[in-house]
C-alpha cells in the first residue's frame, strides 16, 4: 500500500510519466535475508502487481490474495490514467511469459531476441495482442546503430548503458552517444 501511494503520488506530480519496472529477483540470499520464501517470488510479484493496480484504479480498493490482504480503503491521489505502466524486466523465459501475462512492457536482459519471441508466443497463446506490450532493449555500447538494432527487435524504447563513469568523462561521452542517435 505504501508503494502504491508513493508511485501514484509521483505519477500525479509528473503528469502521468511514471513507469514501474519490476523483476522477481534471482539471488536466494536476498530473500532469505528478509524472511521471504524464494520459491514463491513469481506468484508474489504477480499478486503485488494486481493489488497495486486495484488501488490505482478504484475509488475504494479491497484485496484478498495469498500474499496481500487489505480491507476496503481509499488511496489518493490516483495516477492520472488510473494506472501506471508495469515494465517486466528479466533475462529468463519466465520473465518473458510474465510480461505477456501481466506487463505493459518488457525489458529483456540477455538473449533479447529469443525472449521477445517467447513473450510474443505467450501473448498469442493467452489471446493478448503482443503489440500492446512495449519492448525496451538495452545496448551495451553506442558502437551499434541503435535505431537499426531497435527496429530489428521490434523495440519501442532503447536504453544505453552509461558511456562513462568518471565525472570528467561523462559530458563528452554523452555528446558522442547523442551524435550517434539519429532515430
Task: Please describe what this structure looks like.
With 183 residues, this protein is α/β, with parallel strands linked by helices. The chain contains 7 helices and 7 strands, in the order H-E-H-H-E-E-E-H-E-H-E-H-E-H. The strands form 2 sheets. Strands 1-4-5-6-7 form a 5-stranded parallel β-sheet, covered by helices on one side. It has a two-stranded antiparallel ribbon with strand order 2-3. Helix 1 crosses helix 3 and helix 4 crosses helix 5. The protein is globular and about 55 Å long. The N and C termini lie far apart (39 Å). The relative contact order is 0.11.
What percent strand? 15-25%
Percent of residues in helices comes to 40-55%
Ends apart, CA distance between termini: 39 Å
Mean pLDDT: 91
Structural class: alpha/beta
Strand order of the largest sheet: 1-4-5-6-7
User: Could you spell the SSE succession in H and E letters?
Assistant: HEHHEEEHEHEHEH
What is the structure about, briefly put?
This protein has 183 residues and is an alpha/beta fold. Helix content is 45%, strand content 17%.
Top keywords for this entry?
7 helices; five-stranded parallel beta sheet; alpha/beta; two-stranded antiparallel ribbon; globular; 183 residues
Topology:
Elements: H1 2-13, E1 20-22, H2 28-34, H3 41-57, E2 61-64, E3 69-73, E4 86-90, H4 93-102, E5 105-108, H5 112-125, E6 134-139, H6 146-153, E7 157-160, H7 167-180
Helix pairs in contact: 1-3, 4-5
Amino acid at each position: 500500500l505504501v508503494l502504491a501511494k508513493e508511485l501514484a503520488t509521483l505519477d500525479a506530480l509528473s503528469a502521468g510519466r511514471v513507469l514501474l519496472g519490476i523483476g522477481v529477483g534471482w539471488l536466494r540470499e536476498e530473500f532469505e535475508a528478509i524472511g521471504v520464501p524464494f520459491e514463491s517470488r513469481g506468484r508474489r510479484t504477480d499478486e503485488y502487481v494486481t493489488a497495486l493496480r486495484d488501488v490505482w484504479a478504484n475509488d475504494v480498493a479491497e484485496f484478498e490474495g495469498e500474499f496481500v490482504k487489505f480491507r476496503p480503503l481509499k488511496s489518493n491521489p490516483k495516477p492520472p490514467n488510473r494506472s501506471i505502466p508495469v515494465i517486466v524486466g528479466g533475462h529468463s523465459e519466465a520473465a518473458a511469459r510474465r510480461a505477456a501475462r501481466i506487463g505493459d512492457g518488457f525489458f529483456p536482459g540477455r538473449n533479447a531476441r529469443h525472449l521477445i519471441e517467447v513473450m510474443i508466443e505467450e501473448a498469442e497463446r493467452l489471446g493478448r495482442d503482443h503489440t500492446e506490450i512495449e519492448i525496451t532493449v538495452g545496448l551495451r555500447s553506442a558502437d551499434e546503430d541503435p535505431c537499426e538494432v531497435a527496429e530489428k527487435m521490434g523495440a519501442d524504447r532503447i536504453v544505453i548503458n552509461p558511456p562513462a563513469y568518471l565525472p570528467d568523462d561523462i559530458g563528452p561521452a554523452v555528446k558522442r552517444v547523442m551524435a550517434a542517435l539519429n532515430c
